[in-house]
Design goal:
This protein is α+β, with helices and mostly antiparallel strands. 61% of the residues lie in helices and 16% in strands. It has 5 helices and 3 strands, in the order βββααααα.
Length: 145
């Protein structure tokens, strides 16, 4: 028989541990977010365990303590992720064309034509990245040429 033990770990988080009495079968943390609570309930169904009144009290406490992000916070996070994605792609393109060892070799060679070509490429990618950030261009709409 599988048993469930729930303990509150933070005001808006809990830890649920399913065991057979001797060994832990599964242990997972859940926030008070309604989707996390639904995931917890689904896990209970999966393992054939029932929530006790004490478990439900803990769930209610963390659910009430959970603070959902505001629309502004969600939008700010989306914007941060958009920018990180753009910067990551720019870095990937630069390092694919001019890995660090190649950049170092070109700079050390002192061959101005090669240095200019490399600088032009890197500057162009950075320009595209910076303009996309400023203009709020969606990642999929960026033309990296």
């Amino acid at each position: 028989m599988i048993k469930l033990a729930i303990k509150k770990t933070n005001p808006d988080w809990l830890e649920a541990t399913w065991s057979d009495g001797e060994q832990v079968i599964w242990c997972e943390s859940f926030s008070g977010h309604k989707e996390h609570i639904e995931m917890l309930k689904a896990k209970c169904i999966e393992y054939g365990t029932e929530l006790t009144d004490e478990d439900l009290q803990i769930i209610n406490e963390i659910s009430e303590a959970y603070v959902y992000p505001t629309d502004e916070e969600i939008e700010a996070e989306k914007e941060t992720q958009r920018i990180l994605l753009i910067k990551s792609k720019a870095k990937e393109l630069i390092e694919k064309e001019y890995p660090m060892y190649k950049q170092n070799n070109i700079l050390m060679s002192g061959i101005n034509v090669d240095i200019k070509a490399m600088n032009d490429y890197i500057s162009n990618i950075r320009k595209i990245s910076n303009e996309a950030e400023i203009n709020k261009t969606l990642f999929d709409d960026i033309v990296w040429k």
